[in-house]
Design brief:
Radius of gyration: 26 Å
Structural class: mainly beta
Bound molecules: copper (II) ion
Shape: globular
CATH class of the largest domain: Mainly Beta
Number of helices: 3
CATH architecture of the largest domain: Sandwich
Oligomer: single chain
Helix content: 10-25%
């Protein structure tokens, strides 16, 4: 077309040398950025599990029970008690299956911390949430644990590699010296409302499933509330690790856990000081006996309370 010919006639001749310089500079920039340290030296392939049985990385929009023990984790955890037998200092060594150490630069802070440890005894009556500090050698993390009694403690690690940006889990057992606790005597609540008391406070969980119970494989809401036993007193509920409550569910066989946080609509707002209430989503695939440990902070004091329940088939 003539109009077209006219414009092309007015276009200046292509400067090949200039174009070459620009392309070269862009390529050099790309290469420079590619080799810039990003913090972590690990690649998402370091966290890949070949074949079946790999640990499904959790989908935060659909929280559920993670079968940590049965799944093949792409990371290795080693737990060692350091020093004297009565010492409560433990060293946890975290590495990829390929043997690369996993240090603080390789993990993202989630809920204000890079590494969360959930330590629980055989009877599920002593639960502690611990945060190790990086140790001297790469991949080493140190923490103190004061077990309530002796026996085999299972320590679940909950963390998010920077290379994948997705939650990952692993576990290790260690034997705490001293007499083990007796058999579990905790009673299962028969009412639809689960209740626990500590000091001046009463805690309740109301499962919102059909019929009020919790059924295997069915999504349930959990309404968690705190009130003062002396009627009407305000509840000094404070944020702990960026949430007003953390619920962690374990099965009696300690095959895994579910770590729950309030629904996003409850996450940001300050709860009612007279009767704080938070809603959680839960889905547990297998029936059986479970405990939910709730962790809150009341006027600066950390408080942990257990709720025993049965997941019906
Ligand atoms: Cu939490």
């Amino acid at each position: 077309m003539p109009a077209c010919d006219e414009t092309s006639a007015k276009r200046p001749p292509l400067n090949w040398r200039g174009a070459g310089w620009i392309t070269g500079a862009a390529m050099a920039l790309y290469v420079a950025f590619r080799f810039l340290p990003t913090g972590t030296n690990l690649h998402h392939l370091d966290f890949r599990v070949d074949g079946n049985g790999g640990l499904e990385m959790c989908d935060p929009s659909r929280p559920q029970f993670i079968p940590v023990v049965a799944a093949r984790s792409p990371v290795l955890v080693k737990l060692e008690r350091s020093g004297k037998p009565e010492a409560n200092t433990l060293t946890l060594t975290l590495s990829t299956a390929g043997g690369k150490p996993i240090g603080p630069e390789d993990l993202l802070a989630v809920h204000t911390r890079k590494l969360h440890l959930l330590a629980v005894d055989e009877t599920l009556t002593d639960y502690q949430h611990l945060h190790p500090e990086p140790g001297e050698r790469a991949g080493e993390w140190r923490f103190t644990h004061f077990p309530a009694h002796g026996g085999v403690y299972r320590v679940f690690a909950d963390f998010t590699p920077a290379a994948t940006g997705r939650g990952l889990y692993a576990f290790s057992d260690y034997i705490a010296p001293g007499a083990a606790s007796g058999p579990v005597s905790a009673q299962i609540e028969t009412t639809p409302v689960l209740t626990a008391r500590r000091g001046d406070w009463e805690f309740t969980i109301v499962p919102g499933g059909a019929g009020g119970g919790i059924r295997a494989g069915q999504p349930t809401t959990l309404g968690f509330a705190v009130r003062a036993m002396k009627g009407g007193d305000p509840v000094p509920l404070e944020l702990v690790m960026d949430a007003y409550a953390h619920l962690v569910a374990f099965d009696v066989g300690r095959t895994g856990f579910a770590h729950l946080h309030p629904r996003s609509e409850d996450q940001g707002k300050v709860p009612d000081p007279r009767r704080p209430e938070l809603n959680f989503d839960l889905m547990i695939p297998q029936p059986g006996r479970y405990v939910i440990w709730a962790q809150v902070q009341l006027a600066g004091e950390p408080v942990f309370v257990p709720f025993w329940f049965e997941v019906k088939p």
